[in-house]
Amino acid sequence: MTPPLILGLESSCDDSAAALLRGTQILSSVVRGQNALHAQFGGVVPEIAARAHAETLDVCVEAALAEAGVTLEAVDAIAVTAGPGLIGGVLSGVMLAKGLATGLGVPLVGVNHLAGHALTPRLTEDLPFPYLMLLVSGGHCQFLIVRGPQDFARLGGTIDDAPGEAFDKTARLLGLSQPGGPSVEDAARDGDPDRFRFPRPLLDRPGCDLSFSGLKTALLRQRDALISEQGGLKRQDRADLCAGFQAAVRDVLVEKTARAIDLYLADAPAAPALAIAGGVAANGVLRGALTGLCTARGLRFCAPPLKLCTDNAAMIAYAGGALLEAGLHHDMTLSARPRWPLDAGAAPLIGSGKKGAKA
Amino acid sequence: MQHRLTLPSADATARLAATLGAGLAPGDVLLLSGGIGAGKTHFARSLIHSLQEVPEDVPSPTFTLVQVYDTTAGPLWHADLYRLDSPDEVVELGLEEAFEEAICLVEWPDRLGPLAPARTLHLEFADGPEEDARDLTLSWDAPRWDSLRDLAS
User: Fold this and answer.
1) What's chain B's Rg over C-alpha atoms?
2) Could you give the ipTM of this predicted complex?
3) Which residues in chain B touch residue A213, judged by CB atoms under 8 angstroms apart?
């Protein structure tokens, strides 16, 4: 039997996206965002206007249909990000999805944006549940045990900045280009990671929570100390600062991932695996360290291609398909949710049994 | 009116945030300025936690622009306007309504332009004499905040 053709819609943050998916085959995935503007000074210019999302989404759907070579009438179901995110953007996606589902007379399913990211490894690889997930997306960074399409246990996450944000802010503080991930990694290549000893926040505390905000402050202090000593920052100083910063992020991520692995292995998974999503996977140093950790602990290491780790609608279509398969769908009462934790059980969840995403 | 304080540590900042938070109600707007690493988000996080029975994650809003929380004092918006270009975008975010209906903590408030409400409390963070110390300048026009003159660090 042919799997259903699912149209996915995503508009929860900066980008508008539409995709067509059949099973695990991505027929098209269109993302219209602000990428061209990312290189502007200091960061990403967001598309926050609900109106603009609504207009762009229509165009994305048309482009996705054309690229896939199918007509709207061929679509079997609509999956849409219903949260978390900026309410205006999410709302325009949900409204469009409702309109399309009603007009076509097909099922509608609302998807948690973070669930989309967390299930992406299964879209590109044959990865059985449960797997350990290090989910790094925009402002998010968390460790999850993914036990099923609606069953996530959160082990910990950042208590302040996400790593990508720490890289962006480091780049900003050192006059490097945005986004900070690639530019800091580049600069660090010629640097000595041991010249400056940056803090490893929260390593002294138990658990899997991460913190990167203090690291940024330490870097700022070191930069200012160098500038007042020498009257400026030399290229080598910048390289050493970047290398020291990156080494600190690496050490924190590796140690916290090791702790998350301990908790995950208590689930006795038949085929233990760690999947990472987001910019972390694109950084050679971080990826190398996490791959090494997995090898040492006997875990398979998975990292979906980067274009599926940034915001896209293929992951929403895939997650929506998994929900539909589980018999879930929504009606016209589906609402946009600015906040929607994957695991509402939150902190003391270890040993408290399974917790599903709250509908 | 203006009042200056030195906060000797991150904990002192957290205590001050809780003290201030205890007097807040919907309609109160706090503008937080200072450079990267000045402690704006730490202050906001401490204030939000002090108003929650079960403290939840308070991630940096730099990427998401706005995070909304339920607190014992009512709805609270934590916004970071760094990525915005113009006051028009503030309107799109729905901040104008939030200024009326919620407690608002706004980082990088210079982006507000003329949309900054009149009765705000402005907190300016700057590096202090020691590593974790911060100099904080509170300033306001509205009598709503006059009692802060007696605030000690």
Assistant:
1) 14
2) 0.71
3) 37, 41-42, 60
DSSP summary character for residue A158? B
Rounded to whole angstroms, the Cα distance separating A45 from A298 reads 41
- The residue whose two tokens read 């609900």 is A50
What is the Cα–Cα distance from B82 to B65, expressed in whole angstroms? Answer: 8
Q: Are A37 and A46 in contact (CB under 8 A)?
A: no
Q: Does the annotation flag A138 for ligand binding? A: yes
pLDDT digits (tens, 9 = 90+) for A41-69: 334 445 556 667 777 899 999 999 999 99
Comparing A277 with A54, the larger pLDDT belongs to A277
Point out which residues pair with B106 in neighbouring strands. Answer: B31, B79
Which of A286, A338, A283, A280 has the alpha carbon at shortest distance from A309? A280
* Alpha carbons A299 and B18: distance in angstroms, whole number: 44
The Cα A144–Cα A355 span in angstroms is: 12
Is A312 marked within a binding site?
Answer: no
pTM across the whole model: 0.82
A180-188 vs A163-173: helix crossing angle, rounded to 10: 70
- Can you read off the two tokens belonging to residue A185? 């990694």
**A337 contacts in chain B (CB < 8 Å):** none
Tell me whether B97 touches chain A (CB under 8 Å): no
Please write the tens of the pLDDT for every residue from B93-114: 888 889 999 999 999 999 898 8
> Domain B2-141 has what CATH class?
alpha beta
Q: Please give the full DSSP string across A25-62, using - where no structure is assigned.
A: EEEEEEEE-SGGGTTSTTSPPP---HHHHHHHHHHHHH
Q: Closest Cα of chain A to B72: distance in Å?
A: 18
CB–CB of B65 and A217 under 8 A?
Answer: no
Tokens encoding A136: 């790094």
Residue A184 CB: number of other CB atoms within 10 A?
27
Tell which residue, A278, A353, A339, has the closest CA to residue A311: A278
Do residues A113 and A10 lie in contact, with contact meaning Cβ atoms separated by under 8 Å? yes
Q: Where are the beta strands (DSSP E) in A76-159?
A: 77-83, 108-112, 131-137, 140-148, 151-157
CATH number of A129-305: 3.30.420.40
- Per the listing, tokens 């997995």 go with A294
CB contact under 8 A, A169 and B36: yes
Beta partners for A276? Answer: A134
Q: Are B41 and B60 in contact (CB under 8 A)?
A: yes
Question: By the CB < 8 Å criterion, does B133 face chain A?
Answer: no
The reply to whether CATH 3.30.420.40 applies to domain A5-118+308-357 is yes
Domain ranges of chain B: 2-141
List Cβ neighbours of B35 (8 Å cut-off, separation of 6 or more): A220
